Amino acid sequence: MAALLRSARLLKFSPSGLLQITGTKRNGPPLSRLYSGTLGGTRTGVCPRNINPAAGNASSRVWPNAAGCVRKYSVVTEQKDETSVAVQSKQAQEFDWALAKLDSSVRRTGRITKSLLLRIFHDICRKGYPSGNQALLLLRSCGSLLPEVPLAERTELAHRVWEKLNELGAQYDVSHYNALLKVYIQNEFKFSPTDFLGKMEAANVQPNRVTYQRLIASYCLNGDIEGASTILGFMKTKDLPITEAVFNSLLTGHARSGDIESAKNILAVMKGAGIEPGPDTYTALLNAYAEKGDLDSLKATLVTAASDDCSLMDRDLMQVIYTLAKAGHQQHIPELTERLRQERGFVPDAMNLCLSLITQGMEDSAFHILKTFPVLQSDSLTTDSPNLGNFFLRHCVNMDTSLEKLGIYCKALQELNLHAAPLSFTLSCALEANKSGMSFALMKMMKEQDLPVRIHYFWPLLTHYMKDMDTSGVAAALKCMQELELSPDSETLTNYILAIYPSMEAARQALQDAGMSLQSEGVLSSEVRSVALKSLAELYILLSDPSFPPLDLSFFRGSLILGFRRSDDVETMVKITELLYNDERFTKGTNMPAEKVSYLLYNLIDSMSDDDVQAQEEKLRKYFNQLKAKNITISQNIFRGIRNLLDSYHVPELIKDVIVLVDPKEQGQNNPVIPVKRHVGIAAKVFALEKKLADLKAENQPISAVLRQLIHTLCAEENLQRALEVKQQHEEAMTIGSYAVLLNLCCRQDNVDEAVNLKREMSRKDSSLVLDTGKYLGLVKTLSKHGRLEEAVDILKEMKEKEVLIDDTQVTVIFHILSSLAAKGNTATIQRLQETIFTLGLAKPTTNLCSPLISAYLDSKDLSGALDAVMACHDRYKFLPRIHDIIVGLVEEGNTELLQKAMDFVSQKRGEMTMLYDLFFAFLQTGRYREARKIIETPGLRARPGRLYWYAEKCISANKMESLEQMVDLTTKLFECDRDEMYSYILRLCKETNDWKKAEVVWTKMQEENVVPRDRTLRMLADILKNNGQEVPFDIPETWYEQIDTTPKEKPATNTVTQQQTPTQVGAERQVHLLTLCKKGKVKEAFELLKDSKERGLVFSPSIYDQLIRSLLAEGFMEDAMAVKDIATSHLPTFQLSDTATSLLIVTLSKRGLTQDALEKLRSMLSEDRVPTQLSLTRLVQALGNSGNVAGIKEVETLLKNLGMNINMSSIVFVNNIALAHIKNGDMDSAVEVLEEQYTRPDSVKPSIAFVFRKVLEENNEKAIDKLSVMAERLANHFACYRPATDLFLQLLDIDKVEDAKFMLARCNAVAEQKEMLVSYMSRKAQTPGQVGKIKTLRSLIPNFTEKELLYSYLMKCHFLDKDLPSAKALYEQMQKEGIAADELSLKRLATLLRSEGETVPFTEPPESFKFYADKLKERAEKSQMMAKE
Fold first, then answer.
1. CB-based contacts of 867: which residues, under 8 Å, 6+ apart?
2. Residue 419: helix, strand or coil by DSSP?
3. 696-731 residue pLDDT tens
4. Which of 36, 502, 751, 1392 falls between 20 and 30 A from 843, CA-CA?
5. How much is the pTM?
């Protein structure tokens, strides 16, 4: 040791005898200085940080909690079992992913975030078996790459990583210890190098040259030259080379010990040793002077470095700036910032410097650096507002910078025009970080500066308060609102404030304590909403109090409806409705209370599903009847809406209870229950028919025809009582048709006695009479509903005897009949009807028809009965309806005995694998993920794609992301599980919910799992990211055929088999050839190739056959496509068309007018739980409309509603085509009624019916055109609804019926004011060449069109597409005359035309691309729309 100390003393004077220099002038990697960590950290021996010298000598310095530390960070001596090759492979893949993630962040920003690092750390820990590379990666990331994290916290994180990975069995070597040393140096962590070496020795890890260098650096950072000399001695005894890094450390050590001259002399020593001082050495010397604040020496050293041809980078100077700031010499920083050259990469380096300074509490120095950032000079019209300094303000907030400083920085940024709204942005950061005090103070500051402060600014804070049930936080927020003169609106109160308090009284007291007015509209509406959801009785007491102030019903209608749906207190519902009906306090504006209540009733029914209405049928009936007793009426229009809803819910029996509420003023005077229909006085019509009937009878003339017309008229208007009276008076003249209509009405109005009487009378008149299926089933429903089961069974037997046919639509009706009984728990009735229907063969047993019986047991919570019923159903019909719901119920109930019984049965009947999947899905749905894992990890269990798809679809339709994620995670190791398919399910749900962050996590997990994604998965992920403005982190794949064309394989010149080729090779080549032919549109050639392959005995994969079938169908070759299907089936008996192919077949059938075949295909497809495309449904509905098949369209609509998933098909498609079907059948009144209803409903979105206008105009149907024109004018002139009139006007214009369009415009002047629709029309026309005439005609018809800039822009685009230079020039001259400035895109187009004709461009041509200016105009339009909305 004495020799070592002597060597250390000699080092000051003659180092050449001690230092060993290897061949080159500088040891170590030549590029090491280019990646030495982000700014604000310490480079090892190069750019040291200012650490106060530690007291005492080296031997007295130890880590914090020395004894514990030594134990804590030592390596485990027992080696764990070797991991398998598969695990090691997995580790390598995960390391590549983590490295890529961190490397991407460092390359882009020069730093990583703590959240990213922790995420990777947790993922590695969760997987277990961390590799050495992963441990090294994490340790190296805990230093200067985290400039936003305080130094102590960075070191603590490194210790945490070390300890946790050690516990998990990570094997540490010298590289890990070196990494930990580097982190200590960068984080300025004080430790004992001697103890560190001792721990390495205890762990049997030998230090290397890097270890000694970093230990020297550690001593030198503390100014301990003696300790550094000790390490140098070790290096000498081991013949280790002394590199430039060691000299740099020694330079720093001398400077820190106060011997600046010796530090300066290190440069001469280096030269004497044959090492030329480089940029790192000069930077170390500059840092030494910076610590002393010696500006003159700094300048001189910079000159010396330049004279030695040593170029210092901006990053080097930033290190010196950091040292100046930390040493308290901020006054010298401007001298160095002037020398920054702002090289490439300046901005991320400077950002990291600012972040480090802020982290260390030196915000002023950081702000000075911020002001040196380059500012892009841009036109404010074409770019976003300036926002330089976002990162600065955000980090200041995170580090709790004082409000005074934040105010100064925000003011300066705005005055320098570096940031448009710095104070607002700072507030958003404080809200995001949940810093209440800072947020309140910033809001007050904004108020003082006359900046707008909105009530929704408080929402993020209130969300946290609500989560923590923090009433004191809410009180503080309310107090701040009061100080800012803000009053919380109803949404804020309801969603964020009232829910926190245990009672309404407590909430009112809190509001009152905060100085809020309890009589404000927001407080009142929130209170009413809250009470409506809790107790209708309390709500009535509150509203009926005469002192309760006025409050419009619209403020609490939604909550009231929800309260009505939840409550069984019909009497209170009626009291509240009556109060709202009579009391004008709850109506504002011109609307009358009665009108508001009418809409309330409509919205109540509209908010309920068909199951809800069926389950609450009796409650609703009592409600409506009591409303009638209170003389509450509704309008005819509202009645129609409710009637349509009840029809769609399959509960027409309620219609008779609603119709009595219709306002008598809108009915005939002689009979108050007959509503007006199609603007004809029903009373007058009935009176005329009755008079005619009496006259005929007096004249002894036949009355059957008039009687039938009268009965039909009364039944159409639901007037059963009067119809029965007429029937009684003229029973001898009643026809079978009249009886049938009356019978149907009795069933619809639930009058079972009259229905039975009518049926008996009909049978007496004609026992051979056969009713249609709908009337039979209506009678069965009514009878079974009233407990007359035997009579219902007799009706079913009669249907069998008379061979009444039941199609798929009627099977659906049977299902609804049984389901309505299930809602009331009539299990015996359901079972008897089911057995009768199946035994008689009226319908075949299906899972759907068997399920109502199980539903009845489940609704009554009788799981034992449900299980017994399912077992009996399987024994009889081989179906297990709702077995999943039963198992879920048993799991939730914890009934292990019944659960075991169910599992044994399923295992016995369907196999053990089916049983395991049923149990797996039940555990998933109930959140028992640990049990689900045990099930799915059963040895020998294989993936069943169909079952997994079923559950995934269930999760997607119910938006159950957690359950879906768990299924995907738990099936990671499932044998033969298609992992890409599994992850695609999550991405589908991400796409529906627009959750790009979750999609990004999925992408990360796929990479972790090393899943090779299919092209469709990548495209789906790319769509999600692009739709949310995120960067796509991979190349978006081309379509399948583009990949095939670019496959670097030689294609055979002929289709013959060479002797060298095996049949497998030939089949593979032909598959590629087939796909290529399909892509190129040579489907006939592909078909011939397939037939030739069949003769040769070649069999392809199912996807090849399906692709060819799709290509043939796309070209209309249906017969050839079916031939391919036959070939595929002959080779692959289980082959079936994909959803896409079946959808294309439906399209082809629809185009050929084979609508019944297409409809049958759709039914078959849906019965197999397969999903058709939107296009196929649209084409089918259009074909049904063209053929006048109204019932078919309604059936398609019903089928889709029962499907249970969103096809994203607009309801207006059905409406338009139903109207067209009525027109096709000559029923113009029905068509007009269907269309008109779309615009008179209270919730109408004013859809487009241009499709209907276009069709009738193409067919030149004058009658239809006249009727629809009258309707459009009536809607425009009476209801201020201009969409239909504008649609008709534009369609007339489109087919060049200019005079008719002109006439339409004259009758509806407001059409000229429909700017959006007119601009949209011009935009569409300007997409296609040759359409300029249409836009010019529009301009001539509406000469005062306000958006002339847009009009001329579209005209210029048309001239450009038509390559019509003379017209373009004339348009430009006209714009100049009118003083209208041409936009840059129009100028670009005109310039292009001029140059193409060799003419000179008389103006400055915009330099950017067409896309650039198009995007610019689009952004401007979007901003205008946003401003208009605001």
1. 886, 890, 898, 901, 902, 905
2. strand
3. 777 777 777 777 778 777 887 777 788 888 777 777
4. 751
5. 0.48
